[in-house]
Design goal:
The chain is an all-alpha fold. The protein has one domain. It contains 2 helices and no strands.
Length: about 70
């Protein structure tokens, strides 16, 4: 219950901070997002690359096991 309260509180603060009648941090938030987006894209791309390599290795291993099981039959 406490987590829900804090979640709502933080979302309300984020909305209040971006409103012109509130803290008017909209421009700073957009600048932060513009600066962080290339870094986030690079990290997501790197993780996706390593997941792709692991997937290829798993498929090759599964194929070898399938061929070995067919050879034993």
């Amino acid at each position: 219950m406490l987590a829900i309260f804090f979640g709502i509180l933080f979302v309300a603060f984020a909305v209040f901070a971006t409103l012109p009648a509130g803290l008017d941090w909209g421009a700073e938030i957009i600048a932060f997002l513009k600066g962080g987006m290339p870094i986030a894209a690079a990290l997501i791309g790197l993780v996706s690359f390593f997941i792709g390599i692991a997937d290829l290795k798993d498929k090759a291993e599964a194929k070898k096991e399938e061929e070995a099981s067919q050879a034993n039959d």
